[in-house]
From TrEMBL:
Organism: Paenibacillus lycopersici
Descriptive protein name: Phage major capsid protein
Length: 393
């Protein structure tokens, strides 16, 4: 029997749906732990009441004095929406027809496309889960009528990535510009098309992602960002503990790490893991060697080896913001998920569908989720740390 569209759909749905889920949940150490904490949603918005204040109408009195005025506990509701991540592939009609007598050849072609899609979806998700929901991947320096642009950090840009340039008021001034080259040492990107001019407050996002990305750890760890409908400026209890040094880099130390943990615990947090960049981890490892202290790496379930501090695992990620460590209470953070990665299907349950007007077929995967926290001051951001030499920021 010919390998037709119906057979192709069976390959997509039966042979590749399971492995996609498994790879996305396990390849990234931080994402893996966030997914383990996932909260399955029943609606696109969640509501959680927060207890933030005590009944302060208590106190000692002299004999016969008036009793304290009655008071009450204080509550506030927090809420957030899931965000929507998509990825798609296309296969031409001639490709399907040419392989109609060789199912194995078609499966290999599909597998190649699927592995690329899995990698790219995972990459986008992992980057976003370290961000703040805005999609910002770098801020520009002043660049005047050029195609090679200086940025403040280079690690989030990729050759072939399409970016939008956004000004300080949140207006997209350039859209769909493709990055054709990167210079990590000089922190420059080269884009296609006409030369552009940027201000020092302009920034870049992946095309179409402005304010559409899932909330990430970076947003939770910001003391100024409004999060889940609550403004920390008027609700100071809704701030993470932030230990900064006024923007001046300082060396990592065990004393600073101890302070970060204790600060969260004084607010009722229970830190159980730490995240950081490769450069800060290298600086911490050098500190241990400098102090003539050998620390055997902690071996986690599954055989993963990580550095540790006071029995807490330290995870690194290439998308972690440079010059900082995040101390996380995993009991107060969840990946709120309306849908895990799934195929977009038509009313007949088919994932692979004709593209109107073209001799090709397309399939789309999607995921609806966002990161939430229930006690923001249970976490600590240790800022302004010096990266080890040679690490790109």
């Amino acid at each position: 029997m010919a390998f037709d569209l119906a057979a192709a759909n069976a390959v997509f749905k039966e042979d590749y749906h399971g492995p996609v889920r498994e790879q996305l949940n396990n390849d990234n150490p931080v994402t893996k732990r966030l997914v383990q904490n996932k909260q399955e949603a029943t609606g696109k918005r969640f509501f959680v009441p927060l207890h933030y204040g005590r009944n302060n109408s208590v106190g000692y009195r002299a004999e016969g004095a008036a009793l304290p005025t009655a008071g009450n506990q204080k509550y506030k509701e927090t809420t957030a929406n899931v965000r929507y991540l998509y990825g798609g592939i296309e296969i031409s009609g001639p490709t399907i027809k040419a392989m109609r007598n060789d199912k194995g050849a078609f499966i290999r072609a599909v597998e190649s496309e699927m592995k690329g899609l899995v990698r790219d979806l995972k990459d986008q998700r992992s980057r976003a889960l370290f961000g703040d929901g805005t999609g910002r991947i770098g801020t520009f320096a002043v660049n005047t009528s050029v195609n090679t642009l200086t940025v403040d950090k280079i690690k989030y840009f990729q050759i072939g990535m399409k970016i939008d340039i956004v000004n300080n008021s949140g207006t997209v001034t350039q859209t769909g510009r493709t990055i054709t080259n990167l210079d990590k040492a000089n922190k420059t990107i080269t884009i296609d098309g006409a030369a552009v001019t940027t201000a020092a407050t302009d920034y870049a996002v992946v095309t179409g992602d402005l304010n559409n990305e899932a909330m990430g750890i970076g947003g939770i760890m910001s003391a100024s960002l409004q999060l889940q409908g609550i403004d920390p400026a008027s609700n100071p209890w809704w701030k993470p503990s932030v230990l900064a040094n006024g923007g001046t880099p300082r060396a990592i130390s065990q004393l600073l790490m101890r302070q970060a943990i204790d600060t969260a615990e004084l607010e009722g947090g229970k830190i159980d893991w730490i995240t950081t960049s490769y450069g800060v981890r290298a600086a911490y490892e050098a500190l241990l060697q400098q102090n003539v202290r050998y620390t055997k790496p902690m071996t986690l379930e599954g055989g993963e080896n990580v550095l540790e501090y006071d029995g807490l695992p330290i995870f690194v990620d290439r998308y972690h913001e440079s010059n900082r460590m995040f101390f996380v209470d995993s009991g107060e953070i969840d990946l709120y998920q309306l849908s895990d990665f799934e195929w977009m299907e038509d009313d007949k349950g088919a994932a692979l569908a004709p593209v109107p007007g073209y001799d090709k077929y397309a399939a789309t995967m999607f995921c609806y989720e966002t990161l939430v926290t229930y006690k923001r001051n249970a976490h600590t951001a240790l800022m302004d740390l010096t990266e080890a030499p040679g690490y790109a920021v």
